[in-house]
Design brief:
The chain has about 280 residues and is of the alpha/beta class. Helix content is about 40%, strand content about 20%.
Length: about 280
Amino acid sequence: MKVIVAENCGFCHGVNNAITMAEKVLKQEKDVYSLGPIIHNNEVVDRLTKSGLKTVNSIEEIHSGTVLIRSHGAAPAVIDQLKDKGIKIVDATCILVKTVQRIAGQMTEQGYKVVIIGDEKHPEVQAVMGCAGEKVIVIGDESDLHKLPENDKLGIICQTTQSYEYFSKTLQSIVQTSFNELKIVNTLCKEATKRQQSAVELCRRVDVMFVLGSYKSANTHKLAELCKQHNSQTFHLQNWTELDKSTFFQKEVAGVTAGASTPEWVISEFVINLKKL
């Protein structure tokens, strides 16, 4: 089978930085914790766990040692709680996420009601919400538009891993509501956008498309969603072991892409095995 890998796929700078920082601190410190998975990829988390990284879900589980703030970031209140407990903090937050947090804080200071376009349950969005005080609303789709106040100043930002199409479509819905002033800042990740464009371009010219990455990864899910729109034979898998060989029956050319938190070895293993079939 002929296999074509998307020009842009796999680890982004933010993920690479978080993993590098985790590996470094694990060599220097004894008790190292991650408040939530450092990235959304089980293989990477399992490898770091074997090296000593302890993943916890709440601050109450940490009593001493060092805490690694994951790539998705954390709300200022969470950081303050850790400092109050005298716990050492190593910040691996993606630099773009930090920028979005800063923008949310500035909008609040300027009197805007901060509106985040994205998934309210995603850790990145929750961290940004924590930087906007009480004046924050999350819009996932049109069903959330009722949350918007009438005749108010709205400051619009977006979850970094969403697609341009989703951002622009939601904006079109927001501008049709009642408001006094609208300030929009494009906070989409350029690397995520490149991966989306590359994946869509590839899926249009192959018989079957495979998107590799964790089911919990927002950017991987978005890649699969976009590819599915242009190629119905699109399959989201975490790794080679999940492949159902019947998916490429009577197909000659396969396309492969991967989310920003998918390690290179997962992609390589998948491609090598696929070429053998």
